């Protein structure tokens, strides 16, 4: 199997350590590709909308985005990690997700995404891990992914692993290892189930694209949906 990991920071702190614990179950049975932000996506999305209106190759940062996009599409499991910065995911991963606006359901979602699984790993000193995870989950769900596992850890005392109490280390370790076991036991030869919420989103976007395509057959998003067969009876799930 293939796993693609997006690390929202280049810092190798507690989040990195938790991610390594999660991946331990997969080390001997998966091909793991990792990206570190902002190194692997160094430029800001400037909101030019070229990816939506002209196609993803028109993005000024296509050399970075195309490589990550290809890796995400080939992966059986997507892992995204981020510490909480002021109650949210890091700016670096928000920047990456902004670059993938064209992959949202209202535009040109990849059919491969509907059968994928994903895991989000976040932690913070005190509160904020849940809202950081929500930032990332929002995009993943609008890409079409239904099966999303979430780990949130509250450190409560220190941001350095070795300075955490033994009790806290044990608590976090047990929690991340439980999630790891859950996802390592999945049969990845079978696509993940697409939930009702995703199907309803798809249905709404389909109606919108059908109308847009009828008004302008050359409009990029509508043309894409037509080519996928989604404006007729075909579905990506």
UniProtKB/TrEMBL annotation:
A GO MF term: oxidoreductase activity
A Pfam family matched in the record: FMN_red
Limits of the NADPH-dependent FMN reductase-like domain: 1-146
UniProt cross-references to InterPro entries, sorted A to Z: Flavoprotein-like_sf, FMN-dep_NADH:Q_OxRdtase_AzoR1, FMN_Rdtase-like_dom
Protein name: NADPH-dependent FMN reductase-like domain-containing protein
Species assigned in the record: Enorma massiliensis
């Amino acid at each position: 199997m293939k796993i693609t990991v997006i690390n929202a920071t280049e810092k190798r702190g507690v989040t990195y350590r938790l991610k390594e614990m999660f991946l331990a179950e997969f080390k001997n049975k998966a091909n793991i590709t990792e990206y570190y932000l902002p190194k692997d996506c160094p430029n800001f999305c400037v909101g030019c909308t070229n990816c939506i209106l002209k196609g993803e190759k028109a993005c000024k940062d296509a050399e970075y985005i195309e490589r990550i996009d290809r890796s995400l599409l080939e992966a059986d499991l997507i892992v995204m990690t981020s510490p909480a910065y002021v109650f949210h995911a890091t700016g670096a991963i928000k920047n990456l997700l902004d670059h993938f606006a064209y992959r949202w359901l209202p535009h040109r979602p990849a059919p491969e995404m509907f059968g994928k699984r994903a895991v989000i790993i976040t932690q913070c000193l005190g509160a904020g891990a849940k809202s950081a995870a929500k930032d990332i989950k929002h995009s993943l769900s609008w890409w079409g992914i239904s099966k999303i596992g979430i780990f949130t850890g509250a450190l409560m005392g220190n941001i350095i692993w070795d300075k955490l109490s033994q009790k806290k280390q044990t608590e976090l370790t047990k929690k991340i290892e439980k999630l790891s076991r859950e996802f390592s036991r999945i049969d990845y030869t079978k696509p993940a189930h697409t939930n009702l919420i995703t199907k309803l989103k798809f249905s709404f976007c389909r109606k919108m694209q059908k109308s847009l395509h009828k008004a302008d057959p050359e409009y990029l998003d509508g043309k894409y949906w037509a080519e996928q067969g989604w404006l007729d009876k075909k579905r990506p799930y």
